[in-house]
Amino acid sequence: MILLDNVTKAYPGDKEPALDSVSLHIAPNEFVFLVGKSGAGKSTLIKMITKEEIPDSGKIIVGGIDLDYVKKRHIPGYRRRLGVVFQDFKLLPRRTVYENVAFALEIAGMSGKEIRKTVPKVLELVDLLDQAKKFPDQLSGGQQQRVSIARSVARQPKILIADEPTANLDKLTTAEIIALLKKINDFGTTILVSTHDEEVVNNLQKRVVTLKGGKIVDDQKNNGIYKLDEAKVPHVKRTIQTPGHAIKRKVI
Ligand code: ADP
């Protein structure tokens, strides 16, 4: 579903690449957490997939589309095939909850009739049907994020990408948002979420990919936990006593 093969990206002026020969395969219907310290390359990896940034080398294939062949003028159309959720929600402030979702569908070319059918269904999915007439500033952070998720999944994308979607939310609201992402994943959408939240990662027990200095240093396929450093190679110094003399051995 998502394939990165040997992807390297260095921003102009930076000494070290933001991504250094990254290879990653995410299968259909997987739920993957992307973790790593600030500056590890998480946002850059996500920008590679959304084609906000172009790699210096390597290949990226998303939903069967080779991104090398997505021309500039087709990038907005390509992005609309993905669901993308941001930490700062990016809602339209002068539009209601209903209109925020409807507008995204309108841009994607859906008919008025279809839009009127789809929006209530999606708002129900995120449990916001009763808030449809409110404006974003009349909602809590968690509700705003749910509108943003509703907007992203309204077109039923096969892939949902979320860059730190819970960074601005409290613990309880974070749990709600993650439960919603899990529900969307259970419906068959492949999900990639970058996060700093150790508790969220450890509770969900999904695949966890760890980035450090632009490299993937750990990839726990199942029941992953949050650990920012690669597993240390065991390095044990032991002294073995034998009769008569002692042999010092280093066991690696
Ligand atoms: P993360 O999302 O894990 O915090 P980023 O992908 O934002 O990491 O950043 C990875 C590295 O790339 C960092 O060293 C950062 O300073 C650098 N970087 C990110 N965006 C830019 C940019 N637009 N211009 C120059 N350097 C950048």
What's the topology here?
Layout (H helix, E strand, L loop, with lengths): L1 E8 L9 E8 L4 E5 L6 H8 L7 E6 L2 E2 L8 H6 L1 E5 L10 H11 L4 H14 L15 H13 L5 E5 L7 H16 L3 E5 L3 H7 L2 E6 L2 E6 L15 E7 L2 E7 L1
Parallel strand pairs: 3-8, 3-9, 6-7, 7-8
Antiparallel strand pairs: 1-2, 1-4, 4-5, 9-10, 11-12
Overall CATH architecture of the largest domain: 3-Layer(aba) Sandwich
Number of strands: 12
Largest sheet: 6 strands, mixed
Structural class: alpha/beta
Q: Helix and strand string, N-terminal first?
A: EEEHEEHEHHHEHEHEEEE
Specify the helix fraction band. Answer: 25-40%
CATH fold annotation of the largest domain: Rossmann fold
The low-confidence parts are: 232-252
Strand numbers in spatial order across the main sheet: 6-7-8-3-9-10
Average pLDDT metric: 90
Number of domains: 2
Report the principal-axis shape: globular
Strand content: 25-35%
CATH homologous superfamily of the largest domain, by name? P-loop containing nucleotide triphosphate hydrolases
What is the overall number of helices? 7
Query: What bound compounds does this protein have?
Result: adenosine-5'-diphosphate
Q: Please give the radius of gyration in angstroms.
A: 22 Å
> Tell me, what is the CATH class of the largest domain?
Alpha Beta
Cα(first) to Cα(last) distance is 39 Å
